[in-house]
Amino acid sequence: MQIITSEALISFLAHVGTGLGLMILGVIVFAFTTKFSEATLIREGNLAVALKLWGKAIGLAIVIYTVWANSVNLFDAFVWGLIGIATQVIAYWIIEYVLTPKTNLAKKVEEGNVAIGFSLFSVSIVVGLIVAASLTY
């Protein structure tokens, strides 16, 4: 029977800590892409805002999962995790300002438009999957 080595445990904890750190950083960065307090609106029951924010988080988690499976070391994984965060933000800006220039998506979500919130949720997961697939070279 193989016992877990201290080296393996330290590596595991380093990866978990880095992954959770990237998730926290990602959620904070995602929150700064809006002009309203997502935490406040979610506490008030705004489902559209919750969908928008946590769709981005799920998309980022998909990227982090793939990064951990394909990176050569922890630093490489960290860098690709940062690229995943940046890609999610850039994708949102492209959708907001290029693909839907006549619709203020942030305002619609703030107003509680669940259809827009769910659409952004879905797009964030799709972007996460595309970025993840692109990292399996």
From TrEMBL:
GO cellular component, one term: plasma membrane
TM stretches of this protein: 12-33, 53-70, 77-95, 115-135
Location in the cell: Cell membrane
InterPro entries per record: DUF350 (IPR007140)
Topology in membrane: Multi-pass membrane protein
Pfam family, one: DUF350
Keywords, alphabetical: Cell membrane, Membrane, Transmembrane, Transmembrane helix
The UniProt record lists the keyword Transmembrane: yes
Family to which this protein belongs: Belongs to the UPF0719 family.
Name of protein: Putative membrane protein
Species annotation: [Bacillus] enclensis
Origin organism lineage: Bacteria, Bacillati, Bacillota, Bacilli, Bacillales
